[in-house]
Each structure stands twice: as structure tokens, then as C-alpha cells.
From TrEMBL:
InterPro entries associated with the record: FAD/NAD-bd_sf, FAD/NAD-binding_dom, FAD/NAD-linked_Rdtase_dimer_sf, Pyr_nuc-diS_OxRdtase, Pyr_nucl-diS_OxRdtase_dimer
FAD/NAD(P)-binding domain mapped to chain residues: 7-326
Residues reported to bind NAD(+): 179-186, 269
Keyword terms: FAD, Flavoprotein, NAD, Nucleotide-binding, Oxidoreductase
Disulfide pairings: 43-48
Pfam families, per database record: Pyr_redox_2 (PF07992), Pyr_redox_dim (PF02852)
Keyword NAD: yes
UniProt: FAD binding residues: 52, 141-143, 311
Domain of life assignment: Bacteria
Keyword presence, Nucleotidyltransferase: no
Protein name: Dihydrolipoyl dehydrogenase
Cofactor note: Binds 1 FAD per subunit.
Catalytic residues as annotated in Swiss-Prot or TrEMBL: 445
Length: 467
């Protein structure tokens, strides 16, 4: 077995791992990057980029069908499933190649292929070919889709995950989506707009990451117009039915039912890839589900000179957070390897969004019904908002909450182009702004941002117009 030594060993060549390796090298450390799988980042291969390509295709079909609202007649809209998926894969592969081009710039002796496992607190084995002595390590192994027990054993011909969905040759005639979170609702709407009969099942009653009651109701109404929603419904079993799948379900009222579909998509979450790492051998203190105890700011694990970043720590599994966490972990690992100390930067303002149409977003502190006495909430709704109505995208609304001094805390929203409103609010919260300070900015007419100003005005009036 080959013997190597380094300052920092980074396990995983995804978004967080690449950022950690680069940060460690920039800090002067000798770093080695280890990858057991295809690499190329989850986002580029099976996550945000291919899913957005599917979403854009669905939006194009939907907009063509709806053009009559403006007096524009499109005689026929035909969806070519193989062409949609072929374009998706071509663009997806381009994004992945771009990631690998960056890796190819690094020396070959800094990149190793194979499954890594800890032998002790300062040694890793990579497959059966290399043993690495390290001063500090970064776990950035990403995540993998979870498969519900009722779907186990049905095989990839019937059951899809986000890791396999984008490899299918053609669109299915019908699809059951299990999970109404960001991934599930985004793909469900895109598929429905591409002509697939979509049924979505979730044991909860919320969609797209929204939790504010008014916005949750709006989401159910909006998405329910395109998707057959089964909320509060549990999938109890699944079995082959011809070339499809028959799902057995328990409805909210306790009654039993069944649904037959051609394929099922499991979208109930992506747990961290920690199996096979032998974390106990490194002396790490493990918590629930085998996840190491770690400091959420420095990312240092309890029990050893090991950091954990990106989807592997399940803290905030989105790309911009993985990039920042990778940089923090890489810098801190380099510092620890050089007998320095790890730093603990303040976390960014939480920011999450879903690229449905209309989109949804959550910013900052989450909605908390128990905290209403300590908060002031401002509301704005889009049905009568000028720019939204002009574009016939006048659905949804937003809720912004602040403390009693009007310092902005957080928000949820569903509506047209809320990704841009969410960014503005995230910047303001990060800077500690008040509603009055943010309101005292130019809001051009007619823009969607005017709705944002409406909610801020409600906060400055002490919550008038909340809902």
C-alpha cells in the first residue's frame, strides 16, 4: 500500500470539498482531495442545474399554452420528451465538464480516487491502494437520495430518485412524486407542464418549504391547479402493476386507497453520505443518525482535528452555503495543521428558494406562531399588485416579520420573481436593517418590488395589513 502524508486531507470532490481543498492550498497547506464517486458536484450532476433545465422546459410549454391571455394564439404545443431530456443532459454535462476542468489544474498527486475510511485520528486508508497521514481532515462527502421503505425492491425501472431521474430516455405518461418539499414540488410542476399526469403525496400539509399558514394555503391552491395533490397522505405500500406501480395509501380521514402510475419519484430528502467512513476510528463523537457532533460556525467536529462541510453536515444543504462552509473548513483545517486555531465566522442569513412558477422563498428567522407577541408582521399580496397583474402572474403573497423595534428578522413568500425580493431582504437582514431603513429606498414603478415596500410599510405602522 502506498504511503502519503499531507497537512489537510479533503474527502469528497463536490462543491464543499473543492472549495475546502482550494482554501487549504491558498493558506499554504499541502492538501489532498479524495473522491469515491463521479465528483462534479451534486448541483451540476443531479441537483439544481438539471432540475432548472427541466423547470425551464415546463415553463416554456406552459407559457405557450397561456399566451392566449394576451391575445396571442399558439395553435398547438407539442412536447418532445426525448428532445427535452436530451437538451437537459447536454447542458448538464457541460456544467459538469466545467467543474472537472477546474480540478484538472491541480497536480495529480493531490487527487486520489477511492473510498476513504479513517484508521485513526490521523490516518486514512483510500480503497486498498493508499494510506494517508494527515494533520487535519475535511469531510465533504455530500448526500444521497433517501428511498422510502415501501419502494424498496421495485427497481430503477419503476422507481426514480433525483440521482436517476435525469437519465431517463423519455417522459413517463404518469408519475407519483413522494415529497412536497422544494425538490418534489419543483419537479412535479415541471413534469405536469410537460404533459405528465402527476400525483404528489406528502404526509404533511405544507408545500415548497413554506410554513406561514396564509402562504401555505396559497401554495396548495396554486399548485393544486396543476398537480393532483394528496397532502396528509401516507404511502403504505407499493407493488408492480404491469409495467407500472400501484401505490397503497392511507388518506387523511383514515380510509385506504390506491393509485396506479407508470413511475414513482422519491423526493423525501437526501441524508449525508457518512457510511463507510469509520468515523468512530477517528475518535469523533457521534450523535443522532451517526452524524458527528460539530460546531456550526467553525465546522470542527468534537473529538478530533476533523471538519465537516456542505451536505455532509445537513446544516444548510444548498450550494452557496456548501461553498462558504468548504472555504471555512479548508482555512480552519490548514490553520490547525499549522498549529494555529480554528476561527468561527458568523453564519450567513438563511436563504432558501424554490424555482417553481410562482417561486417560493424563505429568508432569515423562520415563521414562529409562538413568537407573534414579540414580532410585527407586514403583508403584501400579489393578486392586485400592478406589475404582477400586467404580466398575468398575480398570485401569492409575502409575509415579513420584524422585532418590536422594526429590526428585520425573516420572511416567507410565494409569487413572481420572489428570488430577487428574497435576496434584497437577506442582504438587509444580514446588515441589521430596520423596516423603515429598507423602506427608505427607491422602488421603481411599475415593479414587483413595490409589493415588497407595501409589506415594509405595514411593519412601520405596527403591523397594519398583516394576515
Amino acid at each position: 500500500m502506498r504511503e502519503l502524508s499531507c497537512d489537510v486531507a479533503v474527502i469528497g470532490a463536490g462543491t464543499a470539498g473543492i472549495a475546502a481543498h482550494r482554501a487549504a492550498r491558498e493558506a499554504g497547506a499541502r492538501a489532498v482531495l479524495i473522491e469515491a464517486g463521479p465528483g462534479g458536484t451534486t448541483c451540476a450532476r443531479v441537483g439544481c442545474m438539471p432540475s432548472k433545465l427541466l423547470t425551464v422546459a415546463g415553463r416554456a410549454a406552459h407559457d405557450a399554452r397561456a399566451a392566449h391571455r394576451f391575445g396571442v394564439r399558439v395553435p398547438e404545443v407539442a412536447v418532445d420528451g426525448p428532445a427535452v431530456l436530451g437538451h437537459l443532459r447536454a447542458e448538464r454535462d457541460r456544467f459538469v465538464r466545467h467543474v472537472f476542468e477546474g480540478l484538472e489544474e491541480w497536480p495529480a498527486d493531490e487527487r486520489l480516487d477511492g473510498q476513504a475510511r479513517f484508521l485513526d485520528g490521523e490516518t486514512l486508508a483510500v480503497a486498498d491502494h493508499t494510506r494517508i497521514r494527515f494533520r487535519a481532515a475535511v469531510i465533504a462527502t455530500g448526500s444521497s437520495p433517501s428511498l422510502p421503505k415501501p419502494l424498496e425492491g421495485l427497481g430503477p425501472a419503476r422507481v426514480l430518485t433525483t440521482d436517476t431521474l435525469f437519465g431517463i430516455a423519455d417522459l413517463p405518461a404518469s408519475l407519483a412524486v413522494l415529497g412536497g418539499g422544494p425538490v418534489g414540488i419543483e419537479i412535479a410542476q415541471a413534469m405536469a407542464r410537460l404533459g405528465v399526469a402527476v400525483s404528489l403525496f406528502d404526509v404533511g400539509h405544507e408545500l415548497a418549504g413554506l410554513t406561514h399558514p396564509a402562504l401555505t394555503r396559497a401554495a396548495v391552491e396554486i399548485f393544486g391547479a396543476e398537480i393532483d395533490l394528496h397532502l396528509g397522505t401516507e404511502v403504505m405500500g407499493a407493488e408492480p402493476d404491469g409495467d407500472g406501480v400501484r401505490l397503497s395509501v392511507r388518506n387523511p380521514d383514515g380510509s385506504q386507497g390506491s393509485v396506479r402510475v407508470e413511475r414513482v419519484l422519491a423526493a423525501i430528502g437526501r441524508p449525508p453520505n457518512l457510511e463507510g467512513l469509520a468515523l468512530e476510528a477517528a475518535g469523533l463523537r457521534l450523535g443522532e443518525h451517526g452524524l458527528p457532533d460539530f460546531d456550526a460556525r467553525s465546522l470542527l467536529c468534537a473529538g478530533g482535528p476533523v471538519f465537516i462541510a456542505g451536505d455532509a453536515n445537513a446544516l444548510r444543504p444548498v450550494l452557496h452555503e456548501a461553498t462558504r462552509q468548504g472555504r471555512i473548513a479548508g482555512r480552519n483545517a490548514a490553520a490547525l495543521a499549522g498549529s494555529g486555531a480554528a476561527t468561527a465566522p458568523e453564519p450567513w442569513t438563511a436563504l432558501a428558494m424554490v424555482f417553481t412558477q410562482p417561486g417560493t422563498a424563505s429568508v432569515g428567522a423562520p415563521y414562529d406562531a409562538q413568537a407573534e407577541d414579540a414580532r410585527v408582521t407586514g403583508a403584501a399580496d400579489f393578486p392586485d399588485q400592478g406589475r404582477a397583474r400586467i404580466e398575468q402572474r398575480n398570485r401569492g403573497g409575502l409575509r415579513i416579520w420584524a422585532d418590536r423595534r422594526s429590526v428585520l428578522l425573516g420572511a416567507e413568500m410565494i409569487g413572481p420573481d420572489v428570488e430577487h425580493l428574497a435576496h434584497l431582504l437577506a442582504f438587509a437582514i444580514q446588515d441589521g436593517a430596520t423596516a423603515g431603513r429598507l423602506r427608505d429606498r427607491p422602488y421603481y414603478h411599475p415593479t414587483l418590488e413595490e409589493g415588497f415596500e407595501t409589506a415594509l410599510a405595514a411593519i412601520t405602522r405596527g403591523g397594519a395589513g398583516t394576515g
